[in-house]
Amino acid sequence: MEKEEQEKKEGKLTLVLALATLIAAFGSSFQYGYNVSAVNSPSEFMQQFYNNTHNERTGDFLDSFTLTLLWSVTVSMFPFGGFIGSLLVGPLVDKLGRKGALLFNNIFSIIPAILMGCSKVAKTYELIIASRLLVGICAGVSSNVVPMYLGELAPKNLRGALGVVPQLFITVGILVAQLFGFRDLLANEEGWPILLGLTGVPAALQLILLPFFPESPRYLLIQKKDESAAEKALQRLRGWEDVQWEIEEIRKEDEAEKAAGFISVWKLFKMRSLRWQLISIIALMAGQQLSGVNAIYYYADEIYLSAGVKSNDVQFVTAGTGAVNVFMTIVTVFVVELWGRRLLLLIGFSTCLTACIVVTVALVLQSTITWMPYVSIVCVIAYVIGHALGPSPIPALFITEIFLQSSRPAAYMIGGSVHWLSNFAVGLIFPFIQVGLGAYSFIIFAVICLLTTIYIFMVIPETKGKSFIEINQIFAKKNKVSDVHPDKEELQDLPPAMVQ
């Protein structure tokens, strides 16, 4: 009877949990999305600034190759910074905690926001390039720490919904940057430094508000060995006094992991008991970035123009696509606990696969069949919907779910590194693929979507509504080991409350 009452209580989204989720996601994930998109609209004005600055220094203008190279470096510094940020995740979350890492990370947003805002006055484009690296580091840390923090705060029946919230705020950040990037607002000669500098506002708000919210109870109990603090944090998050059942679950997870000790990245690669979890996050993170999402956005303007959209109106259509992305991510927040992670991944990658194939046909035939450009527009929107349903939000949530406390930071470092290196590679290589293959470049993305879909179907289990330990028991069978760690047998004798 007591267990049933506990189960009924589980679904409660308390005010403390909701606010902690919103502040963490707005202060960190929003910035990631904002900085992805902020340099797109004002690019011509910024390149003109680079040219004029160089001319004032030397008396010469930059040749087109050097200007393009400088701009490519400016854009690609962001994913490169993201890769560096991913490498910092493990040490930061272990030393400072999940909340502490997010608060410290705001340094990498507020300082570059000020530098970018002052770059035009200082007549130094190098400040922009250095700042893009710093906001990239900020995004690399936050894209890994926010899902980890929220996944550890949430009760298991809300873990999926709250785990998708960071991706929702990334899409909102992209949309806000697109809206501020209208020519009449900030994407003009005077406004672009303000557009770039605004990224510091969410960071400043997080720095003020997040200290009032609890640290991850799992971090407090397992790493800090502070049961009293963990209990108080859980009581605030759940809204009731009796949290012993959940404390017991965390303690059981801790006992099960003591044999493994701290798991470094190198150790994680060597552990047979975590082999399929590791392969799965690498496959999902690579599939997410190499499936063509950035290329679709890159191609979108060209597709809209060929369909007869006036060049001045493309910015509004692009913002409309961003709004569709936000709407579908909101839908995912509500259906992830209903449909499950696996189904959303399968639907998402299958939709992207179909869109890539059809858009290839449409781009090849658009000069011969008059209505083909409209098919291309439908494909862009369908692709965005598919990616927002599964490939964008689920992989980061999945890392929290399939790894236990001791291996989670190392897993996020590996997953984050794959994410950002794939992002960097697509940004660097896609323009050359586009020149070489043209419309047929989407066939490469279709193949990646197909392979990822097959992998998900064959390997990825459903994790909806399961405790971290139950999920690891599923993978233990795949890894052909006796349990989470082969030399620890505690989990075989879990109390009934733990395996219900």
What does this structure look like?
The C terminus is likely disordered. The chain has 500 residues and is mainly alpha-helical. Helix content is 76%, strand content 0%. Helix 5 packs antiparallel against helix 9.
Query: Unreliable segments (pLDDT under 50, ≥5 consecutive)?
Result: 484-500
Biggest sheet record: none
**What's the total number of strands?**
0
* Global outline: globular
How much β-strand is present in the residues? under 5%
Structural class: mainly alpha
Radius of gyration over alpha carbons? 23 Å
Task: Please give the share of residues in helix.
Answer: over 70%
> Could you report the average pLDDT, rounded to the nearest whole number?
88
Instruction: Give the helix tally.
Output: 23
- Distance linking N and C termini: 13 Å
Order of helices and strands: HHHHHHHHHHHHHHHHHHHHHHH
Catalytic activity: D-fructose(out) = D-fructose(in)
Main location: membrane
Pfam families: Sugar_tr
Keywords: Acetylation, Cell membrane, Glycoprotein, Membrane, Sugar transport, Transmembrane, Transmembrane helix, Transport
